[in-house]
UniProtKB/TrEMBL annotation:
Protein name per Swiss-Prot or TrEMBL: Biliverdin-producing heme oxygenase
Organism: Cellulomonas uda
GO biological process: heme catabolic process; heme oxidation; response to oxidative stress
Residues that bind heme b: R24, H31, Y138, R185
Gene Ontology MF terms in the entry: heme binding; heme oxygenase (decyclizing) activity; metal ion binding
Pfam families named among the record's database cross-references: Heme_oxygenase
SUPFAM superfamilies assigned: Heme oxygenase-like
Length: 226
């Protein structure tokens, strides 16, 4: 066990703990902020319409296209260390949701927020950097497997979205979510990252949460009344 001190400014966490713990602790505060964003609260509280959920799905299309393209490139180069799972791939499900929510011409009607474009741009850098990829994949996939399940229930309850519009939140190739999340955390903990790169991973996960917050802020401007 090492107790090497942390590079200034990157994180205040003791890095002798497993990376998955450091990520959870290091993003606890930003997670709370993301959950408390006006758009998310209004969406979860049933105060918006299906159009707001659709706009969120559109942003997720661009985000996952970039994330999964980066993951595929990293894996093809042999650099993903088992962190890219086919079971997690979201892009086909989002495309199918959008075809249902918008119609067969959905691709021609995608409107991305500037915050989404900035997020996607950051994700393209993940294709050559395990540290960046781990941070962003952790933030999205463990979120989808956790709070995402609550989002699915709420949008179905409040907005009557049928199953064909929320398949993004379904993981048919994963039998039970909890044990899968444990395996994912084990893979994170086994990554060959030294203390400095683990600190950078936690710092980048915070960036990932902030990029998500910026997308929610953009959606809030559009859908949540002042
Ligand atoms: C609707 C808002 C949200 C709710 C209700 C919510 C709820 C939750 C809950 C209950 C957990 C714990 C699950 C468990 O113990 O296994 C969790 C974990 C997590 N959530 Fe969220 N969440 C929300 C938004 C977000 C957002 C916007 C992100 C990031 C984009 C996110 C990322 C994560 C991550 C990465 C974890 C895993 C934490 C860990 O165990 O390391 N969540 N969420």
């Amino acid at each position: 066990m090492t107790t090497t001190s942390v590079p200034a400014g990157s994180t205040d966490l003791p890095l002798y703990q497993p990376l998955s713990h450091a990520l959870r602790e290091g993003t606890r505060e930003v997670h709370g902020k993301a959950e408390g964003m006006a758009f998310i609260e209004a969406l979860m509280g049933g105060r918006l319409g299906q159009d707001a959920y659709t706009a969120l799905a559109v942003q997720q299309f661009a985000i996952y296209a970039a994330l999964e393209n980066a993951g595929a490139t990293l894996r093809a180069a042999g650099g993903d260390h088992g962190l890219v799972f086919d079971e997690l791939t979201r892009l086909p499900a989002i495309e199918s949701d959008l075809a249902h929510l918008i119609g067969p011409d959905w691709a021609a009607r995608v409107e991305l927020l500037p915050a989404t474009q900035a997020y996607a741009q950051r994700l393209t850098a993940c294709s050559s950097d395990l540290t960046l990829y781990a941070a962003h994949a952790y933030t999205r996939y463990l979120g989808d497997l956790s709070g995402g399940q609550v989002v699915k229930r709420m949008v179905q309850r409040h907005y009557g979205v049928p199953d064909q519009g929320v398949s993004f939140y379904d993981f048919p190739a994963i039998h039970r979510l909890k044990p899968f999340k444990d395996v994912y955390r084990e893979r994170l903990d086994a990554l060959p990252l030294d203390d400095e790169r683990r600190a950078a991973t936690v710092a980048e996960a915070r960036v990932a949460f902030r990029l998500n917050q910026a997308v929610f802020a953009g959606l809030g401007e559009r859908f949540v009344a002042a």
